[in-house]
Amino acid sequence: MVAGLKTLVFISALVPATRLVVLALTGGDLTANPIEYITRDTGWYALFFLTLTLTVTPIRRLTGWHPVIRFRRMLGLFAFFYGTLHLLVWIVLDRFFDAEAMGEDILKRPFITVGMTTFLLLLPLAITSTSGWIRRLGGRRWARLHQLAYLAAVTAVLHFWWLVKSDVREPYRWGWAVAVLLGARMWWSWQAGRSSRS
Ligand code: HEM
Q1: Domain boundaries, position 115
Q2: Per-residue pLDDT averaged across 148-159, rounded?
Q3: Do the domain assignments include residue 68?
Q4: Cα–Cα distance between 185 and 54 in angstroms, integer?
Q5: Which pTM was predicted?
Q6: For residue 31, what are the CA distances in angstroms to 28, 102, 121?
Q7: d(CA 68, CA 60)
């Protein structure tokens, strides 16, 4: 059952990217500003999958359904996949590989600096997501490294918050979701520490 569900999640997660490719190839409606539209769409899905990855452990704890953990790597890799598409759109379509303009953006526009930081936080996690890397690093070190996902979620929300000009309602909602998910983890680990001391 889990294998079937994983296939379903995998196919569903590819739908947004496929939709963009189809719209681009068929001259579909990508609005008056297609680059901005694709950048926003891929950025939104990167944040969506990153946040979804953080829901896996709470779902397992609250429902006791342990196989849900088998979805975590795939969801995390989809966050990286959409984050990479998002970055590539910016490099190729927005900045036309202009290294100087990109360097200036990264240094001088805080929301780009934070977006790039988010991408760089996700990169080592994607690289070390394989079982081989878990073995090489050892479970404890691997788990510690993968706590960078928490920081990435915070910087992703900050990136969104910073780029929005006036209406901050959506980044605010994501901020709440991430705060609740990270708060629950902190609460559980504090409780675990307390019960191991007593
Ligand atoms: C992988 C980590 C990243 C995540 C999770 C992320 C997330 C987002 C989100 C949620 C949005 C807004 C989408 C919306 O309006 O609905 C966005 C927009 C944007 N992001 Fe990112 N981003 C990431 C990395 C980056 C990087 C590395 C860059 C460039 C160096 C970048 C540049 C932009 C730009 C230019 C916009 C559109 C700004 C505008 O609408 O004027 N992002 N991103």
Answers
A1: 2-183
A2: 98
A3: yes
A4: 10
A5: 0.95
A6: 9, 25, 31
A7: 6
Token representation of residue 111: 């929301």
Per the structure, the count of domains in the chain is 1
Does 122 sit in the ligand 1 pocket, CB within 6 Å? Answer: yes
194 located within any domain: no
Q: Is the CB of 44 under 6 A from ligand 1?
A: yes
Contacts 24+ apart (CB under 8 A), 51-56: 51/153, 51/174, 51/177, 51/178, 51/181, 52/79, 53/79, 53/149, 54/149, 54/150, 54/153, 54/178, 54/181, 54/182, 55/181
What's the CA gap between 96 and 130, in Å, rounded?
Answer: 33
Q: What is the pLDDT of residues 71-105, one digit of tens each?
A: 999 999 999 999 999 999 999 999 999 999 999 99
Note whether residue 27 is domain-resident. yes
| Nearest residue (CA) to ligand 1, atom 24 | 115
CB distance 56 to 69 below 8 Å: yes
Percentage of the chain beyond pLDDT 90 is 96
Are the CB atoms for 33 and 73 separated by under 8 Å?
no
Q: Is residue 112 in some structural domain?
A: yes
Q: Is the Cβ atom of 76 under 6 angstroms away from ligand 1?
A: no
